[in-house]
């Protein structure tokens, strides 16, 4: 194995010499032109002490890295860590913040004057009895209505499955076409019935501005 | 089931028709029934009793107190604009007056009164069904068309509608690919041999009208309510159709 020795000399003004020795010093010789890179120094095997220099290198030797105080480094790292932790905490805090519900968050002023707003009315006995009777009748009415609706849904479902069965007997292909889902129907929107029909050529007066607060 | 027995005897050929059941859904809610009226009044009454007074009511009470003080004679000099200030009652009156100026559209339209069955602008709280009259036989039925090779039955039904109505596709919403009902007509045996078909099967597809549409001029058509269908459609046909219609009342 060859050893590479590095010399620096003031005379040669920071030029590097690379001299190759054989491993054993007893049979001391310098190999000729063992080229490792363009920065190599050539030697002559006939005159081992005769040193030749290559062209000056166009660079300085690497500056020695300044050694930092490990404590300062440690402190710096700590600070960095803390900063990141702080921002994470801040983010986590924001996640917990929920959108306020105005109806539930009663303002303090309203809470204070609640007693002034209470009605001192008591429900008369006959009215309570009347309500009972109406609620009973309502219960029966809604139950009957529900039965009717279920019957209707059943009837329509039966009609559809019967139609599909008959279609299948005629043509399998048409049946397969019929049972495909219709993706255009979803999401389904419908404008519900209102208590009065829309006014023709109704002009909206004033400007409407959406003041809904935005919550992130 | 009729079709099950027919298919078991011999391979039968059926003529296929796709028909579209185009409906105009209700625009306004039907009037409340008696029990609905009662319960809504009752709920309102009890809700009012349980509620807290509003700012307006508090102001009203304040006004009353001030009026009483003025009547008693000990006028509060610290409140010079008492005479000119708007009371809660004034505010309420002004609001009521403004509200009276607004006239909502009437629930019964001119077409309701004239009984114009070609208009969709009547029977606003009911479903209206689009029916057309066959030219030769003068029979009322839903728009239908013969199935062509290569198209699905839904496409047949949509084509049937296009043959009768000039309307952009966006104004009609066909509800799904599956037929909602079927109507079977069996031919008499003489016709059966001549045509080579056992009969006709009409598959109905439901659709909703989303906006107004214009009808082709050369056909007779009507928009009919449920009870009016009884007078125009044949009973057998109507039975097949009403199997998949939504109840009313």
UniProtKB/TrEMBL annotation, chain A:
Principal subcellular localization: mitochondrion
Domain of life: Eukaryota
Family annotation (Pfam families): MRP-L28
GO cellular component: mitochondrial large ribosomal subunit; mitochondrial ribosome
Subcellular location, record wording: Mitochondrion
InterPro entries referenced in this protein's UniProt entry, alphabetically: Ribosomal_mL40, Ribosomal_mL40_metazoa/plant
Record keywords, A-Z: Mitochondrion, Ribonucleoprotein, Ribosomal protein, Transit peptide
Entry's family note: Belongs to the mitochondrion-specific ribosomal protein mL40 family.
Entry protein name: Large ribosomal subunit protein mL40
Organism field: Daphnia pulex (Water flea)
TrEMBL record, chain B:
Coiled coil ranges: none
Stretches with biased composition (Basic and acidic residues): 57-66
Primary location: mitochondrion
GO molecular function: structural constituent of ribosome
Region annotation (Disordered) ranges: 57-85
Cellular localisation: Mitochondrion
GO cellular component: a single term: mitochondrial large ribosomal subunit
Keywords: Mitochondrion, Ribonucleoprotein, Ribosomal protein, Transit peptide
SUPFAM superfamilies recorded: Nudix (SSF55811)
Residue span, Large ribosomal subunit protein mL46 N-terminal domain: 14-112
PANTHER family (alphabetical): 39S RIBOSOMAL PROTEIN L46, MITOCHONDRIAL PRECURSOR-RELATED (PTHR13124), LARGE RIBOSOMAL SUBUNIT PROTEIN ML46 (PTHR13124:SF12)
Similarity remark: Belongs to the mitochondrion-specific ribosomal protein mL46 family.
Name of the molecule in the record: Large ribosomal subunit protein mL46
């Amino acid at each position: 194995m060859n050893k590479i020795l590095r010399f620096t000399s003031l005379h040669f003004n920071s030029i590097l010499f690379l001299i190759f020795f054989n491993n054993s010093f007893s049979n001391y010789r310098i190999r000729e032109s063992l080229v490792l890179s363009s920065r190599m120094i050539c030697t002559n095997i006939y005159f081992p002490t005769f040193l030749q220099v290559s062209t000056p290198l166009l660079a300085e030797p690497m500056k020695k890295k300044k050694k930092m105080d490990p404590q300062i480094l440690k402190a710096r790292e700590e600070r960095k860590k803390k900063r990141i932790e702080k921002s994470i905490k801040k983010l986590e805090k924001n996640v917990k913040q929920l959108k306020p519900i105005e109806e539930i968050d009663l303002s303090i002023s309203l809470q204070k004057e609640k007693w002034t707003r209470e009605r001192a009315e008591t429900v008369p006995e006959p009215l309570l009895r009347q309500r009972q009777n109406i609620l009973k009748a309502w219960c029966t009415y809604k139950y009957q209505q529900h039965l009717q609706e279920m019957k209707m849904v059943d009837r329509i479902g039966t009609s559809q499955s019967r139609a599909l069965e008959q279609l299948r007997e005629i043509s399998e292909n048409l049946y397969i076409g019929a049972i495909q889902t219709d993706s255009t129907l979803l999401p389904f929107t419908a404008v519900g019935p209102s208590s009065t029909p829309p006014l023709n050529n109704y002009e909206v007066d004033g400007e409407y501005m959406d003041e809904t607060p935005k919550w992130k | 089931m009729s079709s099950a027995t027919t298919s078991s005897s011999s391979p039968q050929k059926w003529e296929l028709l796709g028909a579209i059941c185009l409906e105009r859904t209700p625009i306004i809610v039907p009037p409340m029934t008696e029990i609905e009226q009662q319960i809504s009044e009752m709920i309102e009454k009890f809700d009012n009793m349980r509620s807290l007074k509003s700012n307006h009511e508090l102001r009203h009470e304040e006004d009353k107190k001030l009026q009483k003080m003025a009547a008693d004679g000990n006028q509060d000099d610290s409140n010079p604009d008492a005479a000119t200030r708007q009371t809660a009652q004034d505010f309420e009156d002004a609001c009521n007056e403004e509200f009276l100026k607004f006239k909502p559209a009437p629930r019964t339209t001119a077409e309701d009164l004239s009984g114009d069955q070609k208009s969709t602008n009547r029977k606003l709280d009911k479903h209206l069904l689009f029916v057309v009259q066959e030219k030769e036989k003068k029979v009322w039925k839903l728009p239908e068309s013969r199935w062509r090779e290569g198209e699905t039955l839904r496409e047949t039904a949509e084509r049937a509608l296009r043959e009768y109505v000039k309307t952009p596709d966006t104004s009609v919403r066909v509800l799904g690919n599956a037929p909602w009902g079927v109507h079977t007509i069996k031919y008499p045996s003489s016709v059966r041999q001549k045509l080579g078909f056992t009969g006709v099967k009409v598959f109905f597809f439901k659709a909703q009208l989303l906006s107004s549409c214009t009808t082709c001029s050369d056909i007779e058509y009507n928009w009919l309510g449920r009870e009016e269908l009884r007078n125009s459609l044949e009973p057998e046909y109507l039975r097949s159709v009403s199997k998949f219609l939504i109840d009313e009342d």
